[in-house]
């Protein structure tokens, strides 16, 4: 019974992802549900996903409301803009019609006084049209600016909705990609490698003595230490590199177009940065280090096999004295 219900929910989730095309902001929630269904379920993971879903849904509902209102304002402005253009067109059309009448009167006038009277009427109508034209021009210019501002606001809200949807791909504590985000990044980089050739290095690192930090300093300090570690790593790696939290105190760095020697140099530089930038806990300096296993992902190799090789190298670094980078 439970298995059948599980498969039914999975089918519905997959179907929604196929049907929903334009509302890209939903894709993050759908991806999170699919990721949840593909892994063994436990209460802790369910609670974490539930909390993050609530946060994302709440923010998305506010943004969706603002986006709807912005679209409504934009539509109203466009309707008003068209009305102004229509009125201006009718005004100029009426003016041309009156000029034709005045020309006919001038041609039929018997003396100069009649012509003068007609010319006075022409000048009066011309001044009215000039005033109306100037007012319409100013109103249309103002309306155009407002329409542009509304369009920019709509674009901003759409971008923010998309960004909010992507929040479910990131670890809420460190800001690094989570497992789902890592899966997507691995797939992207492996596909790129297969299309373009080149090398792809993968680093798996584990914080040294993290259990001791948690036990002695407390979990709040442990979390702050992970945030500090993530910040230093993200500042030290290159823009083209990808940083993800693999689980607990384990992290992964993807280094595209990077040979093993350069990858070792990069991760060693990260280690030096961590020794230079101390983590402060209760006014005490705490040195955070990590052990790292490095591998080159071979062409056509399953990236998770590469991760397994990196894991073995990382444990070798642990047994070799920690705070080391070892490649396999």
Name the structural class.
alpha+beta
CATH topology of the largest domain: Alpha-Beta Plaits
Give the CA-based shape: elongated
Number of strands: 7
How far do the termini sit from each other?
46 Å
The total number of structural domains is: 2
Helix segment count?
A: 9
> Could you describe the largest sheet, including whether it forms a barrel?
5 strands, mixed
- For the record, the CATH architecture of the largest domain stands as 2-Layer Sandwich
| Uncertain stretches | 16-22
In helices, the fraction of residues equals: 55-70%
Strand content: 5-15%
Please trace the helix and strand order, writing H or E for each element: HHHHHEHHEEHEEEHE
CATH level-4 homologous superfamily of the largest domain: Reverse transcriptase/Diguanylate cyclase domain
- With strands numbered from the N-terminus, the spatial order across the biggest sheet is 2-3-1-6-7
Radius of gyration: 33 Å
User: Can you tell me the CATH class of the largest domain?
Assistant: Alpha Beta
Average predicted confidence as pLDDT: 76
Describe the structure.
This protein has about 325 residues and is α+β, with helices and mostly antiparallel strands. α9 links the parallel β6 (about 290-295) and β7 (about 325). The model is unreliable at about 15-20 (pLDDT under 50). It is built from 9 helices and 7 strands; from the N terminus they run αααααβααββαβββαβ. The relative contact order is 0.08. The chain is elongated and about 110 Å long. α1 (about 1-20) runs antiparallel to α2 (about 25-35) and α2 packs antiparallel against α3.
């Amino acid at each position: 019974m439970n298995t059948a219900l599980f498969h039914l929910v999975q089918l519905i989730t997959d179907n929604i992802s196929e049907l929903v095309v334009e509302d890209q902001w939903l894709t993050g929630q759908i991806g999170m549900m699919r990721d949840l269904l593909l892994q063994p379920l436990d209460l802790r993971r369910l609670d974490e996903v539930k909390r993050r879903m609530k946060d994302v849904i709440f923010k998305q509902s506010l943004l969706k409301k603002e986006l709807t209102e912005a679209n409504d304002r934009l539509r109203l402005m466009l309707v008003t803009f068209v009305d102004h253009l229509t009125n201006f067109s009718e005004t100029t059309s009426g003016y041309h019609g009156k000029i034709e009448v005045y020309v006919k009167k001038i041609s039929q006038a018997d003396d100069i006084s009649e012509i003068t009277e007609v010319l006075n009427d022409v000048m009066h109508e011309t001044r009215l049209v000039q005033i109306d034209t100037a007012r319409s021009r100013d109103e249309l210019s103002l309306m155009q600016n407002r329409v542009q501002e509304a369009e920019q606001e709509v674009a901003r809200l759409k971008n923010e909705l998309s960004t909010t949807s992507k929040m479910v791909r990131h670890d809420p504590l460190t800001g690094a990609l989570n497992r789902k985000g890592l899966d997507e990044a691995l797939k992207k980089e492996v596909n790129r490698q297969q299309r373009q050739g080149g090398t792809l290095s993968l680093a798996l690192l584990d914080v040294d003595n993290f259990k001791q930090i948690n036990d002695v300093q407390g979990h709040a300090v442990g979390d702050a230490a992970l945030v500090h570690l993530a910040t230093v790593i993200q500042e030290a790696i290159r823009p083209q590199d990808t940083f993800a939290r693999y689980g607990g105190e384990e992290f992964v760095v993807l280094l595209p177009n990077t040979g093993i020697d350069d990858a070792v140099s990069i991760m060693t530089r990260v280690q030096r940065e961590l020794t230079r930038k101390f983590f402060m806990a209760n006014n005490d300096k705490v040195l955070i280090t990590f052990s790292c296993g490095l591998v080159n992902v071979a062409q056509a190799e399953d990236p998770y096999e590469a991760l397994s090789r990196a894991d073995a190298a990382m444990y070798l670094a642990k047994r070799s004295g920690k705070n080391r980078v070892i490649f396999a």
